[in-house]
Amino acid sequence: MKATKSMLAGLLIAGFGGISATAAEVRTWTDVEGRQVSASFVQIEGDAIVLQTDEGVQHRFPLARLSAEDQAIAKTAQAALAPAAAAPQMVANATVAQAAAKIDQLVANGLIKANPARATAGKEPIKSFNPLASDEQFVRRVYLDIAGRIPNYEEASAFIKDASPKKRANLIDMLLESDGYKAHTFNYFAEMLRIKDNFEQDNVRGTPYINWFKDQIAKNEKWDKIVYQMVTATGKMWDKKEDGSYNGAAGYLLRDAGMPLDNLANTLTVFLGTDVACAQCHDHPFAEWTQKQFYEMASFFGATTTRLNGKDLNGENPRTRLMPQIEAMIASSDQDIRRVRNGIENYISANQSSIKDRDMNGMKLPHDYQYKDGKPGDPVAPKFVTWSAQDKNNPAYKQKKNNEEKLRTSFANWMTHPENPRFAMTIANRMWKRAFGAGVNEPVTNIDDIEQASNPELLKHLAQEMKRVEFDLKQFMRIIYNTRAYQSEATSENIALGEVYYFQGPMLRRMTAEQAWDSYMTLVLGQPDAYKAPLQDLYARSIDLDLTKVDAKTVLIKYDAFRRMQQKENALMGGGLDMAGGDAMMMEGGAKGSAADKTAATDGPGKILSYEGMRLMRSSEIQQPAPGGHFLIDFGQSPRNIIDGSSRIGNVPQVLMMMNGKAQKMLTSSDSLVLRTMNKVNSPSDKVERMFMTIMSRRPTLQEKEIAKRALSSNGEDGYGNMIWALINTREFMFIQ
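^ that's the sequence the OP posted. Answer follows.
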């Protein structure tokens, strides 16, 4: 028994895991170090073997760890298994597989260490990873996690029928290159960064910022480069750059125009995992942050303004010069200036929303400052915060701080530097949470004390991996999705608020509002990524004025175009459910799939499909956030006022909408693509099969077929609509397994 325990202890570290198995003869197995264990053979899974001890516990470890004789016996036993008994295999390219295996090892180490704490809490010990997810579970989960939607009928069927041992790795690769990845990734960062269409400042809208961020995701720009551009941007969002693109990165600072302290607090929270908001007003009560330190960091933005009050080429204020001329022109055309004055003034003022650095730093301690290290109104010199005594020698801190107009650049160089103590770790922790439902450190907005994480060694390694892949988020997530931990069945055990989770598999979690809506769009449209919002650059073209030299006539011409934007978009409305999912794809007038490669900023001649006022597009293509009363808002979409402001908590309005809302009516309509897909086959049995595969990404059980048969016999053709309604209202549909 001692030898048995010794062997298992060594093998567990090498390949911690467990999957479903069939019983077999118990024998003694010997590893390359001569250690032995009595266990029955379960199966070979890729390069690993699964054995089951007489206690019923299954263990997965590298086949190469066994003696040559036992390896041959295992291979013979595997060959004797029926093909149907073979479990799905995880085969990725060597570099990804090696990186994923290292993460699995660290997760396994954490699982072993978790058991004393679980015993204290009266919980069963964790003996392995959760069983490997089935193909049906995996295809649905990975589509939701990477593409932000369920797979359609053809996608789910093709994956389940695929016999390739590399099909999981291949699917991950395909989804990471899809338009769905771009849409879903945008949704995540839009919530984190509070990106919205309406900046609530004159006529300033975030459309150029939104399109710029989507473009960064589409070309897989590195995370450090994206953040650097946002923090150092100058000018207006709709300024044209040399390559013809818009200066959308300016939207990050202009989102909080006139509120530099709030913007800094958000910056430190989302990019460095440091929650310092309360240090604006007083020393932090639960951390070492002081109010003085906060203002020292804010001093890096003390020479930056987000509102221009400059003069034109004649030395005049643009509004003072233009408005009398505009009023005279309107009066001469017999129009009432009172009806348009505010609109025109706001239109002009929008072009004063611009970022500029000055040669003087205006950052000072607040008027009510009460600490001994300064006096109210004292100037504050810029200084980087440190997390440890070793940080002073960190290369990230070697930044110049004596040029007022370059302070933001120094700050951005420090923050996005690979050796910054928190930058890589913060985004790695966030990306881990996207896959597993919980961060290695919770909350993700505060990782000041790494040792308080559920698995400090794993968190440190993830940060190193983020740096190794040079902040390539797509490559980082490719590694995560190929781990055994991620491909395990979801943990259905209730994890109480504040309880530590150790990642034996992803947590069972409800879809986000965006995932639910985009899954509905998959059921309605088939290929939802082919339906793009039109006229996305019209706002930037119509709002832009050069206030240094523009004349009154040009202002009126462009203002008229600005006011007609909505009319142009409304003219494109006209398609319904019956046009969805076939060759009559919206936008570009192309055949199926042709629009999928187009960008969100493309002007297209096609019709915008809608149903009872709801635009049939992915959540990333409609207003950010959605208008009040929309499905997305009722299901918890963030209003984009606070960081990570969405909710997955159920409520009564959600239940009512699921039971009787427009979305439910849309899916059970006779024009619904779900019903049209079912009608491609004739027999009721085949129709039910298609319905389950379309909605649940799996085939129905015998019991479910019997229930469906009874429903059809008593309700006739209406029974299909009732079954669709019932399936969409199940927990299985709304939760990610």
